[in-house]
Amino acid sequence: PGENETQVDLEELKTSVLYSGPVDPAEWVGLRKSYPLLVYLRNNLLMLAILAFEVTIYRHQEYYRCRNNLTTPVTKTIFHDITRAHLDDGLVNCVKYFINYFFYKFGLETCFLLSVNVIGQRMDFYAMIHAFWLIAVLYRRRRKAIAEIWPKYCCFLACIITFQYFLCIGIPPAPCKDYPWRSGNANFNSNIIKWLYFPDFIVRPNPVFLVCEYF
């Protein structure tokens, strides 16, 4: 690009996907030449193996219960014979009880801690939005009032994760068109772009943040 087209330093411009080397359009849709191919497909095959293992377990449980005329447990816990009455019967029963009901008892507090973790990990514009939502939920105080706003909060999380996923993908680099915040008239630098989580060919959005938001 010419001097009037961008304000980016030359050294920083060399790290851009548009100017660091030839652009392969197939990489934008997730296709990349790799050797050996098995290493490239390792994670996909692992996910398929986990899904197959899960389906096998559920089918085996269903078949076993039908053959022995057993009903499906109502609580769907790991240790079916452990209840609140067994909590003080020893350390082993205490651990079993919390394995069964930890999220049932402390799920809300766990979600609050994970929200704080997202804010601490990101420290950007979307972390500020998460902080406002956390304040809005905590302001309700009572569990019944929190339960009323919780579906809206879950809807917000689903929408914002999807939106940020498309930000991470960005526009295809094949047309060699840069983003408007990289033009000469825009007063944006790399730190501002990173803080706003804008798609960019130099400072690419960190997709690991979406994993934190998922939890």
Automatic annotation (TrEMBL):
One of the record's GO molecular function terms: mechanosensitive monoatomic ion channel activity
Record has Transport as a keyword: no
Keyword flag Phosphoprotein: no
GO cellular component, one term: membrane
TM helices/strands, residue ranges: 37-58, 101-119, 125-141, 153-174
InterPro entries tied to this protein: Piezo (IPR027272)
Keyword terms of this UniProt record: Membrane, Transmembrane, Transmembrane helix
The protein's name: PIEZ2 protein
Species lineage: Eukaryota, Metazoa, Chordata, Craniata, Vertebrata
